[in-house]
Structure formats: C-alpha cells, structure tokens
Amino acid sequence: MCGTTKIPKGISAREGVKALANTGAKAFRLGEILANDISKKKTYSKQNIRFKENRKYFQDLVKLNKKEWTNEYKYWDKLNWK
C-alpha cells in the first residue's frame, strides 16, 4: 500500500447525514498518524519491497539505454548503484 490506508467504503449523498458521521474526526486522525509516521521516518516492509523492485527496474532500464541516456547513466554511476 505504500504507506496509505484504504477506506473501505465510499459515501453517497443518498445515504444522508449518517454516512458523514465522524468522517471529519476519522480523516483528522489518519492525518495525525501520517504526520507522525513521516516525522519518525517509519518504514513499511511492503513499501520497502516495492521500492527495491522499482529501483531494480529503473536500474535495468538505465543500463539498457546507456547510450541514449548518458546523463542519467552518469548520475546513477556517481551514486555507485551498480
């Protein structure tokens, strides 16, 4: 989920005011959790796996296009990414 929280239900105007009960408080609490996690640099194992996969994908992509993407290759090479 990359650090996000799924909300299991959408809200329809046909459901009336009851559907909106506590949504503001819930949204505020989710915002607090998010801000706290960011400030503490909390990591999530599923997110880290996706980051590694994404990094590997782009690493391969830049290597594959080394001749056309010389600046990108030089940039990543300076970061010792190999």
Helix content: 55-70%
Please summarize the sheet with the most strands.
Answer: none
Indicate the radius of gyration in whole angstroms: 21 Å
Q: Which geometry do the CA atoms define?
A: elongated
Q: What is the average of the pLDDT values?
A: 84
Task: Note the beta-strand portion.
Answer: under 5%
Q: Tell me the structural class.
A: mainly alpha
Sequence stretches where pLDDT stays below 50 over 5 or more residues: none
Terminal Cα separation, in Å?
28 Å
Q: What's the number of structural domains?
A: 2
Order of helices and strands: HHH
How many DSSP E strands? Answer: 0
List the helices and strands and how they pair.
Blueprint: H1 23-39, H2 45-64, H3 70-78
Description of the structure:
The chain is mainly alpha-helical. It has 2 domains: 1-42, no CATH class; 45-78. The protein contains 3 helices and no strands. The protein is elongated and about 60 Å long.
Task: Summarize this structure as a short list of keywords or feature phrases.
single chain, 82 residues, mainly alpha, 2 domains, 3 helices
The gist of it:
The chain is mainly alpha-helical and 82 residues long.
